[in-house]
Structure formats: C-alpha cells, structure tokens
What we know:
By secondary structure, this protein is α+β, with helices and mostly antiparallel strands. The chain is built from 32 helices and 24 strands.
Amino acid sequence: MQRWWKIGLLLGVLAGCSSWQDNPAQSTLPSGVTLLEDHLPEQNSLGVHYQKYQLDNGLTVLLYPNDDSPLTHVDVTYHVGSSREVQGKSGFAHFFEHMMFQGSKHVGDQEHFRIVNEAGGSMNGTTNKDRTNYYQTVPSNQLETVLWLEADRMGFLLEAVSERKFEIQRNAVKNERAQRVDNAPYGLMLERLDEALYPREHPYSWQPIGYVEDLDRVDVNDLKAFFLRWYGPNNAVLTIGGDFDTQQTLEWVIQYFGGIPQGPEAGKLPPQPAELDETRYITLEDRVHIPVLLMSYPTVYLGHQDEVALDMFSEVLGGGKSSLLYQRLVESGKALSASSSHYCQELACTLSVYVRLNPQSEYTLADIEAEVDLAIAEFRERGVTDEDLARVQASLRASSIFGMESVPDVVRQLAFGETFLDDPLFVESVIAQFDAVTREQVDSAYRHYIEGKPRVVLSVVPRGKLELAAAPVNFEPEQRQWPEHHTIAPESLAYRTVEDDFDRSVQPPAGKAPQMNLPELWQVELSNGIALLGTSEHNNPTTTLRLRMPGGALSESPELYGIAKLTAAMLKQSSQARSASALTDRLEELGASISFSAGLSDQIIEVRSLSENLEEVLGLLEDQLLNPAFDEQEFQREQARYLQSIEQRFNQSQWLASVMAQTLTFGQDSRLGSSSYGTRESIANITLDDVKAFWQQHYQPRPSQMVAVTNLSAEQLQDKLKPLVTKWQGESASAGSLSQQRQAKPGIYLIDRPGAVQTALRITRPALAYDATGDFFKANLMNFNFGGNFNSRINQNLREDKGYTYGVSSYFSGFEQGGSFVISSDIRRDATAAAISELLQELHSYMDSGPSEQELEYMRSAVTQQEALSYATPSQKASFLMLMQMYQLEPDFVEQQQLITNSISSEELQALAARFFSPEEMCIVVVGDKRALLPDLERLGLPVQEVEL
C-alpha cells in the first residue's frame, strides 16, 4: 500500500543535527565553489543542518554531516528519467543506469563494483520517470575514493563505452524486463494503465524499463548522444552525508568534479497532468488467480497547492482499517485487500484505488467498481473529521522522528527536494500544509478532481475469465509510431574535454580506518522469565523492541501447516476491548507500530514507538497479545485471504522453484518440504479453536527472548515494561524439531510453465546448520567469490559475459537444525540449458581449485570492512542483538569472525568447496516452458523428471 508517499519519500530528511567539524561558511571557501545556503534549524524544531553549494560548472552540492556512525553515503542524482526520452527511444535513462557501472576512462570494466565492495561498501542505482540516481554507502575512510569514482563516470564515461559493453547491457535490460514485467504476474499492469492514462506523446505513457523493440532499434551512438545531452554537472545534485571533514570534502569535490565542463542546459519540463474526456475501461488477461481492479484519476502535479488535500482524501478513502474502502470491501469479505494512494511525480499526479477481489466471493470486478463508487460517494456525507486530521498530523510527526535513523535516507531526500523543487527541505512546507489543511480544502479537492470525474479502470483477470472484468474494453491506446531512425555519426558527437592538473588514473588511498565500536549492551531477566538484551546507545527519542518466542512452523503438525502464520495474522485483528480499526488508528496517532510474524522455529513481535508514548503503546500490545477477540468472522476472512494467496503463488515461477528446491533438499515429509504458508488442504483444515490452542501454547513469556534498542536506560525501559510483564505469565511449549534431511536423487526436476519467457532456476543441496565462527561461517567466506557478490564468478559469467540473466547468486542458508546451498537465478528461456552447463562447470572449477590469492584478498577486504556499516540503524542493531540471543553468542564473536576472515587460507576454502560444490550431488529445479526447454535439457546428459508441487 502506498500511503502517505510524502512520509515515505520525504520525511526521511527530518533528521537530527550534528556538529560540524569545520564550518566553511565561517572560513575561506576553496576556489571554484559558492556557498548558497547554510541551513540551521531552530532549537527543538524538525529539520537537518545542511549546507548547499554550487561549483562554477553548475554542480549543486549538499553536505549533511552526521558522526553517529563511521560511514558516509554519497548520492549523485541526475535530473533525467524516462520523461526526458523521446518516442521510439524508450528505456534509455534506465539503460544508462546499467552503463554507468561498466567502467570509465580511469576505472576498468566492473572495477566500480569491485572497488566499492572491497572497501566494505554497498552501491546501486535507480531510475524512475523523473530522475536517475547512483549511490554508495562506505566506511568513512573511503569517501575520497567514492568521489573519484563518481566524478570519473560523470566526466569520462564515454571513453570506455564499447559496442561489446553496449550489447551486454542491452541483454541485461531485456532480461530485467522479462523477469520483472513480462514473466511476472501483474507485471504488465502499470504499463497498461499508463498507456491508457496518457496519450502516446506524453512522457509518462511508457515505463522507465522501456519497450524491447525500442532497445533493439538503436545503437551505441544513440546512447552516447543521450549521455552528452543529460549527464552534465549542471544537471546533477551531489549529496554527501555521514562522518566527514567538511573542508576536506569540499576540496575533494572541487578537485574531482570542478574541471568537468557543463553540459547543455537541461531546463524544466512543464507540468502535464493527464486529461480524460470519459472513463476508459481496459482489461489485462494474465497468469493470475486473484482478479484486481485498479482505478486511476488524474489530479495535479508535485508541489501543487491541492496536493496535500488530495493526500488527506486518499487517507480517508483507503488509508487503513478504518477507511471507507476497507470497511466496505474487506470487512465484508468481498475483497482480500483495498487501498488508495495519491502518488505524485514531477509532471503529474494520480489518485489510484487498488482492490484485490476475493475469488471465493460471488462478486465480479464490476460489483467491486460499484462498491468503490459507493465509498467515494459516502465521503461527501462523511468528509474529514477532526480525528482524521489529528491522526495524520501525529503520524507525520512520528514519521519525521523515525526518519532521523538513517543517514542514507536523509541524503536521498535532500537530493529529492533539491532536484525537483530547488528546496532540500521541501518537506518542511509539506508538514506545514498538513498542519494547516482544513476539511473545506479536502472537500473542495474531492469535488474538483474525484467526484463524477472520468478515470481509467483496469481489470486484471485470469486468462479466459473476461467475464470478471469491470466492463467491456472501450479504449485502445494509439498504435506506437516509430519515428524514422537516423543513424548518429560518431564524429557528430560533441565530446567534452576535461583538463586536469593531477593524474586521475591513480586511485586515491583510503584514509585511516574508522574505529568500529559495538554498542554497549546490558542484560536482565524480567520477572516473567523473558531474557532482555538491550542497548541505550541510541540518539533518537525512539524505542525498538523485538520479542522472540519458541514455536513457528516446526511446531505445526502436517494437517495444520501454516497455523503459525495464520495465528500471527489473527493477533493483528480485534482485541476484546478494541476493534482492529480502532487499534490501528490509535497506533497511528501515537506514531507507533506493532507487528506479529512467524518464522521457522519462532514467533516474532516487533514494537516501534516514540519513547514518550511507549507506555501506552505497550498497553495496546497487552490488549492484542493477552486479550485477542479471535472473532469468527475475522478468522474466516484471514483464512480466505491465505487460501487465495497460496493459489496466487502457484502462478509465480520463483516461488514454485524455491519451494520445489526445499522439497528436494529436505525431503517431502519435512516441514521445509512445503511452503511456510501451508498448503491448500492444511489452511482449509484449520479452525479458530486450532488458532486459539496454538496461541495458548506458543505465545507465553517463558523462555522468550527480547531485544531493545532505545534512548531509555535499562531501568526506565523496565519500568515501562512492568505492567505487561506483571500480567503476562506462563511457559511456552518448546519449538518442534526438524526431521533428518533427505535429499532427492540429483538431476533435473522440471515444472512446466507453458509460454513462460524466462526460466526460474535453482541448483541446491543439503549443507550446514548456522554457526557464527565454524564451518557455516567459513563456507560463506568460501562462497563470496563464487556467487556471493556482484563481481562473483557466476554473475560475471552468466550476466556480464554471456547475457543469459539479469543476475545470478549463490548462498549458504543455515538455521539451528540444518541448512542448504542454493544457486538462484532467472534465465533467458533460450539460454536455460547453456546456463546450467556453465554453472556446473563453474562448480567443478571452484571445487578443484578454490579462490585465487587475488580473490582471497578481495574477500578479506570486503568482509572485514563492511562491519562499519552493520549497526547504523535501530533495525540493524536489533537484528545483531537477536542473533546473539538466539545462538548464545558473546559480543566478541565479531572479533573472532574478523580473525577467521583475515587468517583463513585458500586451501581451507578449497576444501570446503570440494565438500559442498560437487555438481554430481546437486538437484536442479527448472520452472519454465517444457516444450521449448526439454530437448536442450535432455542433451545435458542428466536425468530429467517432470514434477508438480
């Protein structure tokens, strides 16, 4: 559900202030840079302390110092997305996101990934309709290296672009589209919606991924011309956050970026909200089980004065369990889910309603559309209440505080505000608008943009079930017209020359390694038997609690598989004192969340709250945990939702491949031999009494474990926990055990998916139970260079060299009682057998020789340095503490891991590869089009068996 996109996309910028090491506003700035703004928020106000600069070449630079963690996050946002493309050349912005990682003049092929990974960092890029961004999070001593890398691809990319790289990445983009769009249930939904919402010439009428036929008709010079048009420093925002010296950072920025010449003026595109003269009905037949209704109204554009009023209307219509849509459609059992969102982009916004029909009901999407119209009409009488306004404003405040927790979020949102509105803290005006919005403004926006207005109505129905659609199709988008393609002569490209007074080919040395200190811990046992492990080293006024109780899927009997997850879902419903919607609304007003989930051997409860509200939030937890209503109607609704979700999963190739891999690895009789959600038969077999019994047996405090990440002291937290601890008494049944792993016979197991354009592939075998410093940990070190990072052997082979896949990885998955080794990928259909052959050869090679000395050093550097990024957020700290509790680890296990990483030999890693990488012991799961695949699979010389779940 996309609720309150401002909160999700903007409120991360409301982060706490940190001190400057230097303040260039008060000292001499280096030549070539101008200070535009030194933003100092008032005491106790929401906001960040940042500075905004501009280089002489037009590059905008935002600096946000925060020394809470020894890391820096660098984001370069270019104001170019798919909206800057022209018809017939869609997908270029996204294509260039791929090309920007392929090396530049002074950085070799794939070296950007290697350098950042080896430094212990992480990186990626994203493209949407309005911008493309590239980002890295690294230990703080690696900042200069990242700036060198980013500047080299801004100023020197084209010198390294070759026809071969172009073709490799064209294949990668095609594979990505096949995986995420063409071969995925509902994958074509947004593409079809926007084709109906906007005319063909509108830049939002196509998706950032583009059309395959457009990618096929262009050449490398088209791509170079696109870069020269849009990738200049004057069309970019460089944002840096974290632990750094401001004066030094500015000097580096000027050194590496200052000499890059300006590109053409980018200019701003005018807002272009969609315009409809009548409601358009379209239908998509897809490989799905659950029909979906998606309705979209054109509204305004980013920053428009009516934007917040429409957000507020969307919240009342479909923002939660008390919303009009939820009450009318989900509570009644007509739909599995129903929500609305007001999604804004630079040129246009849309208010959309999304409903998943309950196939067990007798309703069609036409009936659902009528119900949605009744809910929209109901708003005229209901309007916005004072409670709505108070709840949303309180939620906004809480979200702003939680937004302080991540430096990357702060950086990303500063870049967002600057790129689109020339205001890094645009969010402040959004908050002011939410605080000031009135019922009359919301009502006016509703009447002007929604009531009785035309819309696009998309029905997604199972193949052959057109009778379920909302209405007959009355609109077809214009046929795509391809302008004549004019070949661009290489000599016509206007390259920009960079003049330097230093040698860019020399990679900057890393600074002094940052001091990594684990959080200071405290440990107590509460009076009801809960073992509590916590840290109070947390600057934000928030508390995160994670509670683990034994149970989970291993405690289920075969006829009740799935009951652990279903019980967790029921605890999210009504209590004896409050309805589910009342609980949800109150948590939102308090700026808090309570979640229940179930894993393999446990149940998890997580609480996130402003510390000042924690006492009341724990009172709500007490209500949900100790006094659930276990209402029969709510149970039937959740049971129906689970049944339909299971049916839908049978249309997902990746899910089929993963579950079949588990079945073959652990045995059909093992709990891991079927989905954690259960089976059709087991879910249908569960009764409400079964759920109550599971709750009574497994939701008890002794011997549960809890971790806390908070700004409160141990004593303060215990005081707030005391009412719950006093009332919650009892002993939980122990978790079940896993039966002995019994792998199926090695070979190829084929699940037929007629017409699938891609193949979901899993290669698997039994492996090791989890340990922190033993063979499991060492096996993951061994796997790092084989399939554990982007520059791994198998990803370089199948993605970068052969173009068979968008990506392939391998991993050891371990838990207390067992584990497995898995290679996972989605492969181009015509390359399936070839990809399997390559992977088996790679296993043979690595088993015989292990990693090279160069690979060994790469692994050591990457694994040891990435520790600096491991405790930056409360969620990361909570996960670390929970791991310690689960496996009874001492805090020095991290030091032991570092010692092992730095001392393990190539011979020891090769021995582990020989132990687990024998191709002859692997089960190979192939989910794809049998008719197309079978002849090539049989030529591999392995036994092939067709199977079904």
